[in-house]
Write a structure and sequence with these properties.
The protein is an alpha/beta fold. It has a single domain, classed as Rossmann fold (3-Layer(aba) Sandwich), CATH 3.40.50.2020. The chain is 31% helix and 31% strand. It is built from six helices and 13 strands. It binds 1-O-pyrophosphono-5-O-phosphono-alpha-D-ribofuranose and uracil. Uracil (URA) binds next to α6. Uracil binds next to α6.
Length: 213
């Protein structure tokens, strides 16, 4: 994989530990969902470190002080349906007022090309920092299509992508096409198989989150 300045691969023992549990085929749906949320929250702590802040005055029991707080309306999270939904609570744990936009994209099983079937985004999304959420970055087709929609149809200028597990092919594809988009990945895996699954990966994230298989 090429080296890109806009890509951050997490190297943290707590994240690594949780990813081991997430990969395990014996991890049940409830635990899988909890792990996706926890990993997302850990990632969001880093990915959101440059969100806009403002100063407010707070009255402590002893005196008043000024303190930086985040600007409520500054970010929108955009989960790619379905599997991205599993990451929403993880960001909301840290940024409860983040607005949520939904983009429905499924990968055609034969061609692996992305197909959009749903899009509902918050008002004024172009003025917000958009955090695209998808736990799996495989060929990169779904993430690229989402970023294209946000940029071309809605005029979004500040976009970040958070994916838990990525294949080198997917990171290359998104990072090359969208140099302005910061990409955060918790685990960079070896490769894709002939069906577009990430190896070693964790299988189908949507099915494991929602118990559909
Ligand atoms: C999965 C996953 C990503 C996409 C990644 O979605 O959740 O959205 O594949 O693959 P790509 O990088 O090659 O585009 P899927 O199409 O299986 O839909 P689902 O989330 O509804 O299960
Ligand atoms: N989507 C998944 O859910 N898993 C993969 O390995 C690739 C795409």
């Amino acid at each position: 994989m090429q080296k890109f300045e806009n890509v951050t691969i997490f190297n943290h023992p707590l994240i690594s530990h949780k990813i081991a549990l997430l990969r395990d085929k014996n991890t049940d749906t409830k635990h899988f969902r909890e792990l996706v949320e926890e990993i997302t929250a850990l990632m969001a702590y880093e990915a959101l470190k440059d969100v806009p802040t403002k100063k407010i005055v707070v009255e402590t029991p002893l005196e008043s002080c000024s303190q930086n707080v985040v600007v409520d309306d500054s970010i929108a999270i955009v989960p790619i349906l379905r599997a991205g939904l599993g990451m929403v609570n993880g960001v909301h744990m840290l940024f409860p007022t983040a607005k949520v936009g939904h983009i429905g994209i499924y990968r055609d099983e034969e061609s692996l090309l992305p197909n959009e079937y749903y899009c509902k985004l918050p008002e004024n999304i172009k003025d917000k920092i958009c955090i695209v959420l998808d736990p799996m970055l495989a060929t990169g087709g779904s993430a690229k299509a989402t970023i294209d929609i946000l940029k071309k149809k809605y005029g979004c200028k500040k976009i970040k992508l958070m994916s838990i597990i990525a294949a080198p092919e997917g990171v290359d594809a998104v990072a090359k096409d969208h140099k302005d988009v910061k990409i955060f990945v918790s685990a960079l895996d070896r490769q894709l198989n002939e069906k577009g699954y990430i190896l070693p990966g964790l299988g189908d994230a949507g099915d494991r989150l929602f118990g559909t298989k």
